[in-house]
Prior knowledge:
- The complex is a heterotetramer of chains A (122), B (195), C (308) and D (652).
- Chain A is mainly alpha-helical and 122 residues long.
- Chain A has helices at 7-33, 39-60, 72-101, 107-119.
- In chain A, α1 (7-33) packs antiparallel against α2 (39-60).
- The longest helix of chain A is centred in the C-terminal third of the chain and has 30 residues, at 72-101.
- With 652 residues, chain D is mainly alpha-helical.
- Helices cover 67% and strands 1% of the residues of chain D.
- Chain D starts with 13 loop residues before the first helix and ends with a helix.
Amino acid sequence: MEYKSSAYQIYMKYLVGFTLSVLITFGSxxxxxxxxxxxxxxxxxxxxxxxxxxxxxxxxxxxxxxxxKPRLRVQAFTFMFxxxxxxxxxxxxxxxxxxxxxxxxxxEQKEHYMMTQRDxxx
Amino acid sequence: xxxLKDTALSYRTELGFWMYLMTDCILFGxxxxxxxVLRGSTAGGPSEAELFDMPMVLAQTLALLTSTLTAGxxxxxxxxxxxxxxxxxxxxxxxxGAAFFAMELNEFALLIAEGQxxxxxxxxxxxxxxxxxxxxxxxxxLLWATVLAVVxxxxxxxxxxxxxxxxxxxxxxxxxxxWIFIFTFVYLVGxxxxx
Amino acid sequence: MTKxxxxxxxxxxxxxxxxxxxxxxxxxxxxxKSIDILQPAGVIASQxxxxxxxxxxxxxFAVVPVFILLFMAAWKFREGNPKKTKYSPxxxxxxxxxxxxxxxPLTIITILGIVTWVTTHQLDPFRELDNxxxxxxxxxxxxxxxxxxxxxDQGIASVNExxxxxxxxxxxxxxxxxxxxxxxxxxxxxxxYVMKGMSTKxxxxxxxxxxxxxSNTNITGKGYSDMYFKVHSVNESSWQDWIKKAEKAExxxxxxxxxxxxPSRNIGIKLFALEDKELFDKVVMKYVSSSGMDHNTDxxxxxxxxxx
Amino acid sequence: MxxxxxxxxxxxxxxxxxxxASGGAVVLAILAFITYKKKWRYLWNEWFTSLDPKKIxxxxxxxxxxxxxxxxxxxxxIRAQQAVLSQTDLNLIDSxxxxxxxxxxxxxxxFFVAMGGMFAFINWIVPLQIxxxxxxxxxxxxxxxxxxxxxxVLMNLSLALGEFSGAGWLAYPPLSGLEYSPGTGVDYWIWxxxxxxxxxxLSGVNFLTTIFTxxxxxxxxxxxxxxxxxxxxxxxxxxxxxxxxxVTLTLLGLDRLIGTHFFTSDLGGNPMMYxxxxxxxxxxxxxxLVLPAFGIFSELVPVFSRKKLxxxxxxxxxxxxxxxxxxxxxxxxxxxxxxxxNVNAFFGITTMLIAVPxxxxxxxxxxxxxxxxxxxxxxxxxxxxxxxxxxxxGLTGVMLAVPGIDFQVHNSLFLVAHFHNMIIGGVVFGFFAxxxxxxxxxxGWKLHEGLGKIAAWLWIVGFLVAFLPLYALGxxxxxxxxxxxxxxxxWQSLFIVAGIGVMIIGLGVVTQITQIGYSWLKxxxxxxxxxxxxxxxxxxxxxxxxxxxxxxxxxxxxDRDAWWEMxxxxxxxxxxxxxxxxxxxxxxxxxxxxxxxxxxxxxxWHIWWLVxxxxxxxxxxxxxxxxxxxxxxxxxxxxIIAIEGKRxxxxx
Lengths: 122, 195, 308, 652
């Protein structure tokens, strides 16, 4: 890491990053515990909060983007992120379709199955 | 000449370690995907909402977050060549990390006591694999931090130790980043009874 | 290295000999044999054959130029060619030419991509065929190491033998009580994987009478090769005769099924009168519902363990 | 005390005993010979503990070559069974054994032969091509190799102790689960791949860092030789897909060891997830292997055509797009699982898109020959063989990419023929071409050209004879992995022809061994200077044999064909040298590889105390390896002058 900034600035960065992270953590925690939202709305909000905390930590803790050009770390991270989206997103997409297609039971069985699934919170 | 070499070596080592962290992201990504696919398959067992002790999870999260801050402060101390300060912050980091790890072990023990071990269902297997792998990384980090403390105590701030400390901080920050997602997508989504 | 002035006839002769040998051998070995995929006997299989031929012809637009250019380049620009050929050692590329050969394959793939999208939906195994006639329902269970075919509407079942009426859609519902297997009848088309606790679908229709091979295409352990079965595509009356024969056979209920499901090899053809109409669903559901371990899998475990 | 390990673990059937006895006899003879010649110290000091990538590369090549022989032997057994034995009453190879043989064949060929061969080339050539003396993390490189070697030892140990997996090279559950494979076979498969795989992952990180940070001055990314570019793309794939393999194998291992339910059929486990994950790794894996082969051809076609590479930028762009596309095609390995038409069509189309950049590469190679002066050395014969077979393989690949067609030919011998077409025609021919091309750099003498050409012809013809019948058999309804079939199907004649093809390939292998032996005997006559082919890239700028430090002076690059440019610009060879630091030898690679192997072995046999003991030892050794203080040794300027001076004379 080639620090362009002085020790004081780094110090401040860590404090700011920490404060923001704590705030976001509390935010998403109380969102769930106090049931301030539900369903897809909740999921989307949690998603946004998690990713904003990711970027806070990347910038303030991991110092992404502070290196000199050609910024190989940023490139590597971007590439990794794309691959991650492909693999994780792709797997979930594929598995969702497979699981759905493999349930050709009689209708009442399917209903029973879905009921038990719902009970489990899926 | 030697200084030039050291800079090149530091750059190279940090980039290499960064690359390794990227591969580790993929590793966690696969565990997340597996967890997501299997989370509903509880085989009749209780749902996550019934199992998770949320205040405990919040405490865990804050402990890890604090330790990642102190790991940063440790780096600042190192830059200022303040050996005592460095050791103090490293010690605090280890303490909070260990607290996190202890809480995690406690959670696992409680789950197993409730009859929800990794053998109970696919959903539990996925949970233990994902959270356990993170815990294993934390354990490695704690071991690393301890070795680092000993080495800095014995040999002082050599070029090599400075590099090691930077890499350790990077690793520790990275583990906190992973935890954000475990916290959100395992615990919070699980506690809200999923979608 | 070839000396100047003398053409390298040796390799050329070799290439010609290899091509000739392939053609002659191919004709000799293949004549009079049943090449199932190219001689389909079902609606799905014949669409798949057409698709296959279309794809080959289309790709030839890239493959043939490659071969021609490759041999031309090799022949014309070989070191020691007596004819003076152009030599431009610093040639770094040519934008127009490169655009052409980015373009040709891209065009081919675009056409093929559209065809793929359409045919994949047409040939989707889940799509039930419809020709106005009443479809036949067949439930298939892959076992260690045999196939069980259940005809729930006719109230019969058979092992290692599938009888189907010609020109009527056959709607298969499939599962496994064994490691993952796949059922494939090349003359009729499309194979599909079958797994424990899961139920999948396949719809086929025979357009000719005859006896076809069917098989398992996914390794399931030591008796895997024994899982070839015969498919009899027959006319309506013979099919009815066969059903009558089966109705008189021994009954099949869940208990007998468990006996049948134990690992065994080469047990030959068997017929049953179906006593338990919900047999198939029970087999699927035993893995879906909580525990899944029953005596069958236990004995299975013992049987395999014993073999090592 | 010894977990599952007991006397029952030893083989009892005649073929395995024969194999183990003869293999063991050869190993013992070699060990005895080394002891007799008192070479252990030499081997330890000069090879095992060396951190020199050139030496590590040679060791990779030796392991790969030995494993190739075992892989070919397995192939011969498969064909013997299918062509003759299954149709007789002889029950020499039973179903269990047959299934272990083909599982071993696939595993060995991909993980140990192809991966090993690839890392041999990378270790040798990449640092030289980018003008570096070393790799980024020399000790890590040695650890990678010893993990790879440990995996290989474990894999072969399964012959003598216990059994190997019979569940195919990718061991689909539930067949590979405890319920259906209670023995040690699948465990051997999991843990030997696991440690070899971790080694590969570390290598991927290592070489990416090397290429990104250690290039010679002036060598921008777009001035890198295409081989190095192909390694960048291939190592990116390694770094980003091997973690998937690690996870998948671990989860399957946990299912078998501690009773989790990831891929079991009961308690909610989902075997389809395994198949999804393993192919998310498995498909990029084949591109990991074939991209370097593309790189090799991109090096030697310009050299033997005495012309620049046609369309360098296109080539780099093609490599990158193949790399990126290969991440999003994995589902084409299980179209027939029934994910539905939309999913299937999407993955089908992304798959056939790969044909576009691949086709572009073939055209560019052809136009590199165009208006050149093509010298048909044996390397070029391999290239011609590659261009023909690979194009056929591409055609059948496009066919398989169409889900509608795949539903008919999946898991049939058509599929088997297709991937052998890509792996033999692409990877193997590429590696042999590269071996012949770079051999003078490795050893200082050329391989005998005549024998090389004969070997290439035998392989090409043998390949066609062995695999064209399989295409036909696939069309006739023959599925893969059959140890028996009904004689009335009329398949036997085609299987016999395929068997003859394997024998022709076997003759090719024998010719290659003869070629190497004969050339070694005649090495005085075949001795060449450091740049025998009039090369274009920096590896040819080094003296031969390449000294430990590779480059006395680090080169400064101004052109893509850096060495060609230097030769033609008549760059003066500098004679003023400075001291060079190179990494000191260390045994840590060997220790870590050995301990990992012991850990894996004791997991396989459930010897828990040994797992803990060797695990703790592994951690201690790993920590102490990071604490080494003095990691480098110095070669003084005077030594360099002595070595370089000798070189000047040998060139003249």
